[in-house]
Recover the amino acids of this structure.
């Protein structure tokens, strides 16, 4: 761009994507922040206009109102599938946040979380402590407190509410290939039972599960916050770990992690040593539901439960995986799947958004809970730890009785009922 006000920045690199926007406004009604805040600056089109204004120099990168509108974005990418011009909004958002970080600091809580998640020696004890706390009645007791502390406690309390299931033996011949699973940070720390269920259901469906030692946080939280340097460092470690595993597929049961791993090639596009390796690993990443749907999946034993399904944004919009989770649930005899109105709308979790933008997050969660209530379902199935905790916390605080659960846990319980 002639006379670019921010040359050499990630935002300047993203100019072709910004130019792709034809300002048609088809994205507005898909955008939860626009629908809730009713401000064009909090819409995809408005934010893209702000990005262009930054490059043209008509607003400065120090302008706090620009950062406010960019911060308000959930990064849910609901604006991407509806865009007729194929604007890669998620990439534009990350580039903008990375550029603004050079001029304005991020919130202390976001800085702390990103610092811990990039360092396994800090993350492990933090998760251990969270697990211990979650096993006590304290989070449930404190979940009624007003404000973020109460909500954070409800999130923690929600992690201990999975389904009871019997043990069963798995015998896989591995005819569908070798799979390494991403352990993840929150999944490994707070949803260990779901990770173990993931390995079991893969084996039941003919995959051979292998370990990938040395893997770390996927880097999604860092990339979404504009901390591209740490996101790239984490991506390189994961690429090396999954290469060593020799796996044909990398199974991911956290939609946000799967989305960034599929896009490692974009994240490392300017790194000649890692670009091709990142593309190769990205092409092997599958959401767990994709692998299971490709295998059938095998039908389990009966689970007479009323369940509704909430599509995680990073599965539905970023990975464009819509049918596979429903195919998984359809393999469970007796399970009554009730449609959820606006199931493709964000729940307001969005990584660490619910902790740093609590008011907008609550406003986005409210209609979600109302829609869940209307289904009269006892369980809300969703395949992402952020959504599990956000919806789980909302259900606890609204005293609705229903629980959030990963679809893998349901399939695993069905296999346990069958006695595989
Ligand atoms: S739908 Fe796409 S092209 Fe139209 S305004 Fe939104 S981002 Fe721009
Ligand atoms: S990512 Fe979500 S919140 Fe952000 S502009 Fe797009 S639709 Fe709106």
């Amino acid at each position: 761009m002639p006379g670019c006000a921010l040359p050499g920045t990630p935002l300047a690199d993203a100019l072709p994507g910004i130019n792709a926007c034809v300002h048609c406004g088809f994205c507005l009604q898909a955008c939860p922040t626009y629908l809730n805040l009713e401000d064009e600056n909090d819409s995809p089109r408005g934010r893209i206009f702000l990005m262009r204004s930054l490059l043209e120099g008509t607003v400065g990168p120090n302008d706090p109102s620009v950062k406010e509108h960019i911060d308000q974005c959930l990064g849910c990418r609901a604006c991407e599938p509806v865009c007729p011009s194929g604007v890669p909004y998620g990439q534009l958002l990350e580039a903008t946040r990375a550029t603004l970080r050079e001029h304005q600091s991020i919130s202390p809580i976001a800085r702390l979380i990103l610092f811990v998640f990039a360092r396994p020696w800090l993350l492990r004890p933090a998760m251990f402590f969270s697990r211990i706390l979650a096993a006590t009645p304290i989070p449930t007791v404190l979940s009624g407190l007003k404000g973020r502390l109460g909500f954070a406690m409800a999130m923690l309390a929600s992690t201990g509410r999975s389904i009871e299931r019997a043990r069963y033996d798995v015998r896989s011949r591995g005819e569908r290939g070798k799979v390494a699973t991403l352990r993840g940070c929150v999944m490994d720390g707070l949803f260990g039972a779901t990770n173990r269920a993931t390995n079991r259901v893969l084996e039941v469906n003919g995959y051979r599960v292998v370990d990938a030692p040395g893997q770390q946080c996927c880097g999604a939280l860092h990339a979404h916050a504009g901390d591209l340097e740490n996101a790239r460092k984490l991506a390189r470690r994961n690429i090396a770990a999954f290469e060593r595993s020799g796996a044909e597929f990398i199974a991911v049961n956290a939609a946000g992690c799967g989305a960034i791993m599929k896009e490692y090639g974009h994240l490392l596009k300017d790194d000649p040593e890692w670009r091709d390796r990142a593309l190769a690993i990205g092409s092997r990443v599958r959401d767990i539901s994709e692998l299971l749907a490709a295998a059938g999946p095998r039908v389990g034993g009966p689970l007479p439960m009323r369940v509704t399904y909430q599509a995680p944004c990073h599965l539905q919009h970023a990975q464009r995986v819509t049918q596979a989770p429903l195919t998984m649930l359809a393999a469970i005899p007796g399970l009554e799947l009730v449609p959820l109105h606006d199931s493709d709308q964000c729940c307001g979790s969005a990584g660490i958004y619910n902790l740093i933008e609590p008011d907008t997050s609550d406003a986005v969660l409210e209609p979600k809970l109302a829609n869940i209530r209307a289904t009269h379902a006892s369980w809300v199935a969703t395949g992402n730890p952020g959504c599990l905790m956000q919806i789980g916390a909302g259900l606890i605080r609204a005293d609705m009785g229903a629980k959030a659960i990963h679809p893998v846990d349901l399939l695993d319980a069905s296999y346990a009922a069958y006695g595989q």
In short: Residues 30-33, 44, 47, 73-79, 89 surround iron/sulfur cluster (ligand 2) (CB under 6 Å). The chain has a mean pLDDT of 95. The longest strand covers residues 178-181. Strands lie at 178-181, 208-210, 249-252, 285-287, 306-309, 336-338, 379-381, 403-405.
